[in-house]
Amino acid sequence: MRILLHRADGVTEPWVRDFAELLPEAEVVVWQEGASIAPCDYAVLWMPPDGLLADLAHVKAIFLTGAGADAILKYGDALPPVPIIRLGDAGMAIQMAEYVSHYVLRYFRRLDEYEKQARAGSWAQLPQHRKEDFSVGVMGMGALGMRTIEALLPFGFPVRGWSRTARQVDGVQCFSGADGLDEFLSGTRVLVCMLPLTPDTANLLDRARLSQLPQGAYLINVARGAHVAEPDLLALVRSGHIAGAALDVFRNEPLPAPHPFWDEPRITITPHISALTIRTESIRQMVGKIRALENGEPVADVVDRTRGY
Ligand code: NDP
C-alpha cells in the first residue's frame, strides 16, 4: 500500500514516522513539486497545491488532516470521484471548547476591561453582567459545535444552537435553516461561528446579519474568515453595536499588516490556533479508516460534496 503525503508546512518526517509505526504495511511517499510519483492508494493532505491534483488519479480515498473540507472542495470536478474523508474531532473538539469558553467567560466576567484598567493603574469594580442576559449562540452543531455547547452548559448560560437540519438537544434552544436564523441571531448575546465554509455559509455574517444581534453583542469566529464580512464587522464594532470580537480565522492568513483589525483594541486576534491538528490522534483515526476501507467497511466523516461539508 502506498500513501501520498503532502504537508503545506513542509514538516513531513514525524508524519512518516507515525504512519510507519501505526500502519507498517504502508509506504509513505512525500509529495514534491515536479517529482514523478508512482500511483498511490490513499492521499493524506489538507490544502493541496494545484500541481498535486494529477497525482490523485489512482487513489481510493483522500484523507484530510483537518475538519474542514473547503480547501479541497474548491477544486470541484478536478478531483477524482473518490471519498474525501475529513477528521472527526480527533482531539480538536476539546480545544475548541477551551478556546470558546475562555472568550465567553472573559467577556462575561469583563476580564478584558479589567486587564485594560489594570494597565492604567485603575482599581474599580464594574457592575456584573447578568447571566440570564448572556445567551450564547453556537452556529454549527457538529462534532466541534456540540462539544463546545456541552462545555458551556454547566456555566448556566442560556445556550442556543443553529444548524442546517433541525435538532433537539436537552437544555439547548435549537434553531435551524434560513427560517430560524433571524430569531436565533436576535436573541444571541455571544455569537460563536463553528460552521463549515460552504456556498451557503460564505459571507453569512455580513452587516445585515450582524446588525440583528442585540446591542453589545460579542462575536467569536473559530470557523473560517470568509464567513464574516470583515469591513462590516469593523464598522459595527466601531459604532459600538458589537462590543468586540475574538477572531481566530481571517480571509487572508496570515492576517496581513497593515489591516485595521490589528489596531482595533476590541478585536482580539489569534493565529488560527483554536483547534490544532493533533498528529498522532489524527493518524490513528486515519489508519482505522484505511483498515475499514480495505475490509470493505463503511467509514465516518465522508464529505458530502453536494452539501459542501
Ligand atoms: P461538522 O460537519 O461536524 O458540523 C457542521 C455543522 O454545521 C452541522 O451542525 C451542520 O448542520 C452545520 N451547518 C452546515 N451548513 C449549514 C448551513 N448552511 N446552515 C446552518 N448550519 C449549517 O463540522 P465540525 O464541527 O467538525 O467542524 C466545523 C468547522 O470548524 C470546520 O468545517 C472548519 O471550517 C472549522 N474548523 C476550524 C478550526 C480552527 O482551528 N479554526 C479547526 C477545525 C475546524 P447539520 O447538523 O444539519 O448537518
UniProtKB/TrEMBL annotation:
<dbReference type="InterPro" id="IPR036291">
    <property type="entry name" value="NAD(P)-bd_dom_sf"/>
</dbReference>
<protein>
    <submittedName>
        <fullName>Glyoxylate/hydroxypyruvate reductase A</fullName>
    </submittedName>
</protein>
<keyword id="KW-0520">NAD</keyword>
<feature type="domain" description="D-isomer specific 2-hydroxyacid dehydrogenase NAD-binding">
    <location>
        <begin position="103"/>
        <end position="274"/>
    </location>
</feature>
<dbReference type="InterPro" id="IPR006140">
    <property type="entry name" value="D-isomer_DH_NAD-bd"/>
</dbReference>
<keyword id="KW-0560">Oxidoreductase</keyword>
<keyword id="KW-0670">Pyruvate</keyword>
<dbReference type="GO" id="GO:0051287">
    <property type="term" value="F:NAD binding"/>
</dbReference>
<dbReference type="Pfam" id="PF02826">
    <property type="entry name" value="2-Hacid_dh_C"/>
</dbReference>
<dbReference type="GO" id="GO:0016491">
    <property type="term" value="F:oxidoreductase activity"/>
</dbReference>
